[in-house]
Design goal:
Strand order of the largest sheet: 1-2-8-5-6-7
Shape: elongated
Order of helices and strands: EHHEEHEEEEHEEEHEEEHEE
Number of strands: 15
Number of domains: 3
Helix content: 25-40%
Largest sheet: 6 strands, mixed, barrel
Number of helices: 6
Radius of gyration: 26 Å
Distance between the termini: 30 Å
Strand content: 25-35%
Length: 305
């Protein structure tokens, strides 16, 4: 999927249009038209000079969306200046199934060059249904400094980072919160599952049985740990132990099993994953693979609380 942003007319184009209008007025009304045209041209010239320094003219861009980790929550700033744009997206977005007072949207993070106020600014845009984007605000300056270098690396590859966003509020005042992971594990290493949404990443749940699937884990991490990946959850039955034959969830990476949830965790998440699968097509979640030394590689899922 690509993202594009609407363009605005440049100050030079506006001045040219006004100059043409002034010429038409002069031809039509003589000296009076000339005076009116000259006054209009002067007013527009002064206005564009004053606005050019403060206005960031959005360029039309086409970048591939790169899904970022959702294992964190960040409130953006500057929404007060973009209430109309946020309201437009809110009116087109689906409500949050876990909170009917907010709606869900997709945000893209756009690193900006050094400006007058921030040396490392990161703009937050919200996507419309047609793929165009509108500005909703910015990351806080201290957060932008942590994220900008990673986002600039993506931009050099023709990619722009995206994450889920929650729009909170009503017609009087909107706020925007991002589901965005920490910079250390921001980029997901396994993107083959496409853009289907993942379960909310709120706390870690251990996977059982990894010792029998170390070859799969080693192939996925390819010598690098920790690795942040997307896993799939699928119904299965426990094959040994005191709960043999009971239902739980198996965990798959690249289509291969790497373990299961415990019986208790299976009970907790079976219905939730089934509902998520019906709504999105697949039960996907984020996972972190770490190297535990003599215990080998271990996977922890990031699932809802």
């Amino acid at each position: 999927m690509t993202m594009q942003q609407r363009t605005e007319p440049s100050p030079a184009a506006v001045l040219i249009a006004v100059a043409v209008l002034a010429l038409v007025l002069t031809v039509a009304f003589g000296p009076l038209g000339f005076v009116l045209g000259l006054a209009l041209f002067a007013l527009m010239f002064i206005g564009t000079k004053n606005n050019t320094a403060d206005q960031i003219v959005p360029a039309r861009t086409r970048s591939r969306l790169r899904r970022l980790s959702t294992a964190g929550r960040i409130a953006i700033v500057g929404e007060a200046h973009h209430q109309d744009a946020i309201a437009e997206v809110a009116g087109l977005s689906a409500s949050d199934p876990r909170d009917d007072r907010s709606v869900l949207a997709t945000a893209v993070l756009v690193p900006e060059s050094a400006g007058r106020h921030d040396h490392a600014a990161v703009r937050v845009d919200l996507l419309r249904g047609d793929g165009t984007a509108v500005t909703a605000g910015y990351l806080r300056s201290e957060q932008a400094a942590d994220y900008q270098s990673l986002l600039l690396d993506l931009a050099e590859r023709g990619e722009v980072g995206s994450c889920p966003a929650r729009i909170i509020g009503s017609g009087q005042r909107y706020g925007v919160h991002l589901y965005l992971g920490a910079p250390r594990l921001l980029l997901l290493d396994y993107e083959a599952l496409g853009t289907a949404p993942t379960l909310p990443a709120e706390h870690q749940v251990a996977v059982m049985g990894e010792p029998a699937h170390q070859y799969v884990l080693h192939r996925v991490v390819n010598g690098r740990t920790p690795v942040h990946v997307i896993a799939e959850l699928r119904d299965c039955r426990i094959v040994k132990g005191s709960h043999t034959g009971e239902h739980t969830l198996e965990v798959l990476l690249e289509g291969e099993c790497i373990g299961q949830l415990t019986y208790a965790m299976g009970l907790r998440y079976c219905d939730m994953t089934q509902e998520w699968r019906v709504r999105t097509g697949r039960a996907l979640c984020e996972a972190v693979i770490t190297n535990e030394g003599t215990r080998g590689l271990q996977a922890n899922l990031l699932l809802p609380k």
